[in-house]
Amino acid sequence: MRLFVALELPDDLKGRLAALAGGMPGVRWVRPENYHLTLRFIGEVPGHTAEDLDLALANIRAKPFALTLSGLGIFEKAGRVQSLHVVAERSPGLQHLQAKIETALQRAGLPPERKRFAPHVTLARMDGAPMAKLVSFLQTHNLFRSEPVMVERFVLFSSRLGKEQAVYTPEVEYALAA
Question: Hey, where are the domains in the chain?
Fold first, then answer.
């Protein structure tokens, strides 16, 4: 199984994010049903490991918190823009939950995450979008800001790579409690 832990977004927020998409060649836009905020990518694991990870995640205790998306960003690799995203504002609640998940998964046997946590929601993957169009898009939409949404759960997703885009399936939901 290919797994990751993420926050689902409410449909109205997905709609606002979807309204940003379009008007740029050389881009593969993420479908709105695939919008999420990854807390920890796990990758391919055998079934018995998935069960251990589920147990570890089920024992996490954290309080609900407000999540706000604000501004746009890009990720680059070797000088090439890889993806376009909306930035999630850092908050003590988000940082606390992500740290608890990381600790629980390491205790369950996963190696530590090497990348620094950069909370975001991917909007598009780049396939050679003209830089001038990308810069214009960023300038036009950089003031995007969502209303705060209450995060009351996190989800273990499975991911199946498809022809066009991956298909994400919620496997287990974990409630946050005050």
Answer: 2-175
**Among all residues, which ones are annotated catalytic?**
36, 120
Candidates 162, 72, 175; CA nearest to 121 is 72
Residue with tokens 């273990």: 156
Quote the pTM value: 0.93
In the CATH scheme, what is the homologous superfamily, with its name and number, of domain 2-175? Cyclic phosphodiesterase (3.90.1140.10)
Burial class from Cβ neighbours inside 10 Å (0-12, 13-18, 19+) for residue 62 reads buried
Q: What are phi and psi of 157, to 5 degrees?
A: -105, 150
Q: How confident is the model at residue 23 (pLDDT cuts 50, 70, 90)?
A: confident
Which of 51, 39, 32, 44 shows the shortest CA–CA distance to 5?
39
